[in-house]
Amino acid sequence: MSTVQKKAICLYFQVHQPFRLRRYRFFEMGNEHYYYDDFMNESILRKIAYNCYLPANKILLDLIRKHKGKFRVTFSLTGIVIDQFRLYAPEVLDSFRELAQTGCVEFLSETNSHSLASQVNRDRFVRQVSVHREKMIEHLGYEPTSIRNTELIYSDEIGNWMAEMGYKATVTEGAKHILGWKSPNFMYCNAVNPRLKVLLRNYTLSDDIAFRFSNRSWSSFPLTAEKYASWIKGLAVSSEIVNIFMDYETFGEHQKKETGIFDFLKNMPDAIIKKTPFSFMTVSEVAESFQPVAPLHVPSPISWADEERDLTAWMGNELQTAAVSKLYSLAERVDRCGSEQLTKDWVYLQSSDHFYYMSTKFFSDGAVHAYFNPYENPYQAFMNYMNVLSDFEIRLNVICPVNNHDEEVNRLSASIHTRDMLINELQEKLFKLEKKAGVARPKAVKAVKGRVTKAAARKPAAVKDVAVTKVPKKTATKKAAAKKK
Fold first, then answer.
1. Is residue 3 part of a domain?
2. Residues 125 and 259 in one domain
3. Pairing between strand 188-190 and 241-247?
4. What is the domain range of residue 294?
5. What mean pLDDT comes out for the span 203-214?
6. Domains in the chain, number
7. Which of 74, 197, 374, 457 could form a disulfide with 12 if both were Cys (CB 3.0 to 4.6 A apart)?
């Protein structure tokens, strides 16, 4: 397959919403163990479903049918948003399943919790990706072959893990400090394991839609499909691939319907197909169709967040690092606890959004951090999260203590409790059998309410034995008389 003549445009959308926490007070610790604001979570998801997911999915389905395979798109749905669809908006999950069945939509693997597991260790990251892959197979009937990490977090090491898991391609940010003079509009490969292809986001063209579309002070306002297609066409001479990556909520939620964003989405594929040499491809199709021009060296993790394109949106201050450190210090004991409810809470508490709300960044990124943020300030977010985490730890300590001594005490306490229950059960059975046989219980035994001591339980038998061994009076007199003779 010739790579010289081909030109590809790759549309990729992230779909994610966290389980937001309710206001959890200090005095509730140890008493109340439900952490989520169900009303807020359902309200927000239903609102976005109405404004974005359902109408945008309908438009994409119509475009796929209209262009008969020429229009293709890629999604990543987090495991947490799939859980919310199942709870609050099953019709949205049905619409994604319908898109999957067209064969023109790819779904990527990622961490199930939309977490920072890749910053903890490899094993935790791999396990979360495996859980997510199974969830995609179960609920969408789709097995992913390419992958993305939470918020496009990527490094040489993480890319190597992805390659060794068998994935063919990943997506990340075309960060300036990584690319230098190089262009994001080509295919690259992982510097450690070249088998993994790396697609880089063209952040200028992506943000033109995601952030600037409705900005009336923008020099290119209003943005039309024809204008956008002309910009894409202008890249044909110097580019092979144009990667347009953004949050799916851009359509109808971040950029409201009244801005004309849905009309733009409807007309853009037509304009690009007719007026440019670029063809729509999914992430895996791009990886199969193009060869890397060079390895991409990313020694420290990058992401698509904020101006810095690093991890400071989630781990950039002392509040965030303290919360992340405390959370993952519990990881090994959670793995051993065997509690279904604790494990479920553990999944939801790992969502990177909880740490994002603790960000103290302001200025250009402040509005982004405030979107759907349930807290008034980052300090409130931190205190609420740590209160929840403290209660979570209390529950974990009961099931899976910190040290061997505590574990032995818990084990013996449980054993004693089990023994006491068994003794009471057997005594109840004994009482019923005696009552049925008409045997009267000694008063000392009857006086014990709910539990019989071992000494009292043995007493009836001891009395019976003495009664049996008594010598009858007549027999004793005859023996004495015979001895006298």
1. no
2. yes
3. unpaired
4. 8-315
5. 96
6. 3
7. 74
Q: Are 14 and 246 in contact (CB under 8 A)?
A: yes
Residues 194 and 287 occupy one common structural domain: yes
Q: Residue 331: which of 391, 392, 406, 383 has the closest Cα?
A: 392
Domain boundary among 264, 295, 315: 315
Residues 392 and 265 in one domain: no
- The residue among 384, 399, 414 that closes a domain is 399
Whether residues 13 and 98 share a domain: the answer is yes
| pLDDT tens figures, 317-329 | 999 999 999 999 9
Whether residue 472 is predicted with pLDDT greater than 60 in this model: the reply is: no
Q: Provide the whole-model pTM.
A: 0.81
Express each pLDDT in 256-282 by its tens digit. Answer: 999 999 999 999 999 999 999 999 999
My answer on whether 201 and 56 are in the same domain is yes
Which range among 15-19, 330-334, 361-365 shows the weakest confidence by mean pLDDT?
Answer: 361-365
**Residue 3 confidence (pLDDT) above 70:** no
* Residue carrying structure tokens 């609920």: 139
What amino acid positions are annotated as catalytic residues? 151
